[in-house]
Amino acid sequence: MKAVTVKLPGGAEQLQVVNIEKPVIRDGELLIKVKACAINRTDLMSREGKTGYMKNPVLGIEISGEVVEAAKDTNIKIGTRVMGLVNGGGYAEYAVMPADRAMIIPDNLSYEEAAAIPEVFLTAYQTLFWLGGLTDDNTVLIHAGGSGVGTAAIQLAKQLTKAKIITTAGSQRKLDFCQSLGADVCINYKEQSFEEEVLGATGNKGADVILDFIGASYWEKNLKSINIDGRWVLIGVLGGTVVEKVDIMQIMLKRLQLKGTLLTPRSDEYKRDLTDEFVQRAMPLFLQGKVKPIVDTVFSLEDIQKAHEYMEANKNIGKIIVRIDATE
After folding, report:
1. Which end of the chain is more exposed for a tag (fewer CB within 10 A), N or C?
2. Helices 118-125 and 148-160, packing angle to 10 deg
3. Does residue 279 sit in helix, strand or coil?
4. Exposed, middle or buried, 124 (CB in 10 Å: 0-12/13-18/19+)?
5. How far, in Å, CA of 170 to CA of 174, rounded?
6. How many other CB atoms are found less than 10 A from the CB of residue 275?
7. Could you say which DSSP state residue 22 is in?
8. Within 13 Å, how many C-alpha atoms sit on residue 223's CB side?
9. Residue 54: which pLDDT band, with cuts at 50, 70 and 90?
10. CA distance 49 to 34
11. Mind listing the pLDDT tens digit for each residue in 228-276?
């Protein structure tokens, strides 16, 4: 089968499409004929050799496709359309998925749309509710509103709570799209001081929950933007990893909860439980058309280098998908 591996840690030019053997399933697993997979920033970090937790030589952590083989101890039938997280190996014509992590694809969604759901919606759900404790009377600040997780988080916050939603993005095009998804206040971080805008929108109190994809460069601004007893969830480091001269007293005075998380290296049990709750609470929203996967661009497997370069350019709104036409 065709699959994407990395020659040497580095840029997109290190990605290569190779021919390897199909993976073999074990107990509790499914073999999926992959129809589409999605690009994630963790893939870029793995390509660069920065994650330290990539065990599968084939990149890719989320897929959609058709079940072609199932272990005897599973209850999912051959031919079922599924989507979900995999432990690497997603950029390939066939991939192994734990059966208890497989989500049935709603009939109204294509494979490309389905591939845009698992990582970003599960991450958004986890950060908003499991870690952020978002409630109806809260205000949430979602940075990178036009990103995959950002667009998912806006929709989930809108549909599952009555919280006030504030988001940031770097272009009017992205902000307009965020507003169409349900954001109440949209801030252009290139033209406005987002911390001042957040305080202005919250009666000078600040946001109760912050979903922070940026990290170091937003440290001081986020401190000013967060309310007393706020929950600040760090899920990305686009703005760097090192903060100079941290004033711990500011964290204490506001009684902040600062949490860092990555979904990919979490345990199989954690991902199973998260998937189960997400399916119960949020999957009906896709069938009802109240929540939708956001697909920006679809590439072919042969254009995998271009797909990574496109993500690195930060031009996308929503997900970057790779369509895979499996050979027999």
Report:
1. C
2. 50
3. helix
4. buried
5. 7
6. 21
7. P
8. 13
9. confident
10. 25
11. 999 999 999 989 999 999 999 999 999 999 999 999 999 999 999 999 9
Using CA atoms, how far apart are residues 313 and 290, in angstroms rounded to an integer?
A: 30
pTM beyond 0.85: the answer is: yes
Residue 292 tokens read as 């939708």
Tokens of 234: 């760090």
33 token code pair: 């004929």
The residue among 114, 131, 146 whose CA lies nearest residue 266 is 131
Q: SS in 3 state form for 75-124?
A: CCCCCCEEEEECCCCCCECEEEEEHHHCEECCCCCCHHHHHCCHHHHHHH
99-131 pLDDT tens trace: 999 999 999 999 999 999 999 999 999 999 999
**186 SS3 class:** strand
Which letter, b or e, does each residue of 215-236 get, where b requires 16 or more Cβ atoms within 10 Å of its Cβ? beebbebbbebbbeebbbbbbb
Question: Residue 51 — very low, low, confident or very high, per pLDDT cuts 50/70/90?
Answer: confident
User: In whole angstroms, what is the distance from residue 170 CA to residue 207 CA?
Assistant: 20
116, two tokens: 């845009």
CA atoms of 185 and 200, how far apart (whole Å): 10
Whether residue 243 contacts residue 267, with contact meaning beta carbons closer than 8 Å, is answered with: no
Report the C-alpha gap between 197 and 290 in whole angstroms: 28
Indicate the length of the chain as a whole number. 328
> How is residue 275 written in tokens?
């998937």
Determine the Cα–Cα distance for residues 309 and 324; give it in Å rounded to an integer. 18
Residue 279 φ/ψ, nearest 5 degrees: -60, -45
